[in-house]
Amino acid sequence: FVDSPLSLSSASLRRKMVRFGTVESRQYDTVVDDNPACENGPSVGLGWDYCDETDEEAAAETSSPISVHMYERNRPPRSRRRGTKMLQLTPETRFEMLKEAGIPAEEVEAAIKSANTIKQRRKETSAMMFAAPAHETLEKWVHRLKRTVHLKQSDSKQISKLWDKAQLQHAQHSVAAAKDRVQKTQRRSHAAVTA
Questions:
Q1: For residue 108, is it left (φ>0), alpha (ψ between -120 and 50) or beta?
Q2: Under the phi-then-psi rule, with left for phi > 0, alpha for psi from -120 to 50, and beta for the rest, what region is 41?
Q3: For residues 65 and 73, what is the distance between their CA atoms, to the nearest angstrom?
Q4: Neighbour tally for 115: CB within 10 Å
C-alpha cells in the first residue's frame, strides 16, 4: 500500500485536535457489591441509576455543568488532595452507607458471604497452580510409554485404569495440600489481625 502524494499532503495539513467540553458530576445510587478485594465487611458499589435534576434533594448535591478549564482552575492542587488511604472506607462506614441507602441487612450479609466464597475459590485455584506442570509432565511420560512399548488393547485398558487411579490420588493429594496452605494463610492473617 503506497500513499499518493495528494493523500500525504492533505493528511499532513490536517491538525489533530482534542477538545473537552464540560464537566458534570452526578450522584449515583449506592449498592452492595461482592468485590473480593474488600477485606472486611461489605463492599460498596455504584448502581446504574443516578439522580436527575428533577429530584430537588439530589440536585442540591449534583453540580451543574462547568467548563473543563473552570474545573481545573478551581480544583485543589495535588498536594492538598486526599490520598488513597484517606479515601478508603472502614467496614463500619460501609455498613452505615448501605443502611442509609435502604439496603436490607440480609442482602448485605449475602454479599459478604458471596465475596468470601469468591476469595476462597481464588485461594484454592492459586494453591492448585503448582500441580499443573507436574500433571502435564506425567501425561507426556504415559503417552511416550504407550507409544514406545506398542501396548496391546488389554494392556492399554489396564494402563488407563492405573492412570485414572494415579490422577485421582494426585488430585486428592493436591486438594489436601491446598487446604493445608489455605488454613496456614488464614491462621497467619488472623494472627496478624489480632496482633
A1: alpha
A2: left
A3: 15
A4: 21
Residue that finishes a domain, picked among 58, 93, 115: 115
Q: State the DSSP string of 144-172.
A: HHHHHHT--HHHHHHHHHHHHHHHHHHHH
Instruction: Tell me the CA distances in angstroms from 120 to 45, 78, 117, 165, 173, one per residue in order.
Output: 21, 38, 5, 27, 18
- Rounded-to-integer distance, Cα 32 and Cα 20, Å: 33
| Alpha-carbon distances of 179 from 88, 112, 128, 168, 194, rounded to whole Å | 31, 21, 10, 16, 22
Same domain, 71 and 108: yes
How many separate helices (H) and strands (E) can be counted in the chain? 8, 4
pLDDT tens digit string along 144-185?
A: 777 776 655 566 677 788 888 888 888 888 888 888 888 888
Owning domain of residue 61: 22-115
* Domains held by the chain: number: 2
Tens of pLDDT, residue by residue over 40-65, are: 889 999 888 887 765 566 555 556 78
Q: What is the pTM of this model?
A: 0.49
CA-CA-CA-CA torsion sign (40, 41, 47, 53): negative
Look up residue 144 and give its three cell numbers: 511416550
